[in-house]
Specification:
It is found in: Cell membrane. Its main location: membrane. The chain is an all-alpha fold and about 525 residues long. It has helices at about 1-30, 35-40, 45-75, 75-95, 100-125, 130-165, 165-170, 170-185, 200-220, 225-250, 265-295, 300-305, 305-325, 330-345, 355-385, 390-430, 435-440, 445-450, 460-495, and strands at about 190, 515. The protein folds into three domains: about 1-190, Up-down Bundle (Growth Hormone, Chain: A), CATH 1.20.1250; about 200-250; about 255-450 and about 455-495, MFS general substrate transporter like domains (Growth Hormone, Chain: A, Up-down Bundle). The longest helix has about 40 residues, at about 390-430.
């Protein structure tokens, strides 16, 4: 009996890890396919941007909703529905014959991911009741999630090069089908909680987060003073403020704001948000730097990320053991600090750098990322009652996704502004008209996509490369400074907290959801 139970737990963990890996992988693997998509579907830059960001937009807007729906209708049931939608969206994307269909399919994938990811951590909590066993399982689950983000560039380049752009979507279909089959057999049926659904909170949070992410995505390209960007930013502020006011007044809110009085919870969530802020920015800059300035092939640039991937795999179980022994403070502060050191170190290497020169920064950033994923999840699970696990998991994923979008937008804006200023001055000295600065500034991106940046005259190309590297350096240093400040703040927040049993974090009695195990 015990052996059968242990086997079921291993299969349940495998199911949750595989599905989370798939949803995290999809966040980054598509970037490698954008040039081929643009050629085959005759898409411009705006269309390609929405292929890449449509997923993040819908995911960030609906992940809190996914957590609430899981609590109301059953976490396992909603998890399976999300897996079905994600797999179906992947198949439609692979078969898409137009850019509009492809963007719609990416958004369907985002809906699926928003439904399945909050339930994943909640189900994990119920499958592994023992604290030490649960900590090891969360360590593996978190490591696989982080691995999906880091391995995307490594596998995406060769797949696109040899199998075509549709392969980055087809890969999800057999994985999703296998995960769905396993989910119906090995995952426990976690029944719904007897509580009302917060329809007002669902509408306000989805609309507010959607408006915010849209403004962050469109701001760098349209300009931050664009009417649509400003309108979406203002709408996001108003809608999210209304959401917070509503949640404070409800007896059964979708987002329990009183949980944020806990310093450990705030520190853990801040760590997840800021690591995504800095590292998503780095993962966005590195391919452009390697391909656009250093002249690497897409596959080579992808393989260059292997050291980061290896360190994430190594660090995830290590951080789980550190969390079990010392609590989340040590690995969280260490992980955030390592990410800050890695980003700062990378900013000292430019267009003449060799791979071995900055290899240490990739190891450092991978170690830092791997150290933070697990303790964030464990810290949150330790501080919330079981009935609120789905909501807490959705909050983790929302902040991580928003951190990534915000990191790319803010650090990208810093890069663009710095590059434009430096390039304008350099081209002025070369006698190039001011009106040509904009098209010439796109040269690093065009080179990375295999376009004709090599047609630029030698002095102009050198000015472009120098300005781009200068912008990358400033963006990386800003990201490093933000992470360093976060490490100090997290250390202070977690130093003032005391261990607390989950049930004590909420002074209202909380009903426990019904759990029914499947018959084998």
């Amino acid at each position: 009996m015990g052996e059968s139970s242990a086997r079921r737990k291993r299969l349940a963990l495998l199911t949750l890890c595989v599905t989370m890996f798939m949803s995290m992988l999809d966040n980054v693997i598509v970037n490698n396919a954008l040039p081929r998509i643009g050629q085959d579907l005759d898409a411009g830059i705006s269309g390609l941007q929405w292929v890449a960001e449509g997923y993040s937009l819908v995911y960030a807007a609906l992940v809190l909703t996914g957590g609430a729906l899981g609590d109301r209708y059953g976490r396992t049931r909603v998890f399976r529905l999300g897996l079905v939608l994600f797999t179906a969206g992947s198949a439609v994307a692979a078969l898409a014959g137009s850019i509009g269909v492809l963007v719609a399919a990416r958004m369907l994938q985002g809906v699926g991911a928003a439904l399945l990811t909050p339930g994943s951590l909640a189900i994990l909590r119920h499958v592994f009741a023992d604290e030490r066993e649960r900590a090891r399982a969360i360590g593996l689950w978190s490591g696989v999630s982080a691995l999906g983000l880091s391995v995307g560039p490594v596998v995406g380049g060769p797949m696109v090069e040899h199998l075509g752009w549709a392969s980055v979507f087809w890969i999800n279909v057999p994985i999703g089908a296998a995960g769905l089959l396993l989910a119906t057999r090995v995952l426990p049926d976690i029944g719904p909680c007897p509580r009302r659904i917060d329809l007002g909170g669902l509408a306000l949070s989805a609309a507010g987060l959607g408006s915010l992410v849209y403004a962050l995505i469109e701001g760098p390209s349209r300009g931050w003073t664009d009417t649509r960007v400003l309108a979406c930013g203002a709408a996001a502020a108003a809608l999210l403020a209304a959401f917070l006011v509503l949640e404070l007044r409800l007896a059964e809110p979708m987002l329990e704001l009183r949980l944020f009085r806990d310093g450990a919870l705030c520190g853990a969530l801040l760590s997840g948000f800021m690591v995504s802020f800095g590292m998503f920015g780095a993962l966005f800059f590195l391919p452009l730097l390697m391909q656009g300035v250093l002249g690497w092939a897409p596959s080579d640039a992808g393989y260059a990320g292997l050291p980061m991937t290896a360190m994430i795999v190594f660090a995830a179980p290590l951080s789980s053991r550190l969390t079990s022994r010392y609590g989340p403070r040590v690995p969280l502060v260490l992980g955030v600090a390592l990410c800050a050191v890695g980003l700062g170190g990378l900013s000292f290497h430019g267009e003449d750098a060799r791979y071995l020169d900055y290899l240490w920064t990739l190891f450092t950033m991978g170690l830092g990322m791997g150290m933070t994923f697990t303790p964030v999840s464990i810290a949150v699970l330790q501080r919330v009652p079981p009935v609120q696990t789905g909501m807490a998991s959705a909050t983790i994923n929302t902040l991580r996704e928003l951190g990534g979008v915000l990191g790319i937008a803010v650090l990208g804006a810093i890069l663009t502004n710095r590059m434009t200023d430096v390039l304008t001055a350099s081209l002025h000295r070369l006698g190039v008209p001011a009106g040509a600065v904009g098209p010439i500034a796109d040269a690093p991106t065009a080179a990375g996509h295999g376009a004709g940046a090599a047609a630029l005259p030698g002095p102009v190309q050198a000015a472009v490369d120098g300005a781009f590297v200068d912008g990358v350096h400033l963006a990386l240093r800003c990201g490093s400074a933000a992470l360093a400040a976060t490490a100090v703040l997290v250390a202070l927040l977690l130093s003032r907290t005391r261990p607390a049993a989950p049930a004590a974090d909420d002074d209202r009695p909380q009903p426990e959801p019904r759990v029914e195990a499947h018959a084998q």
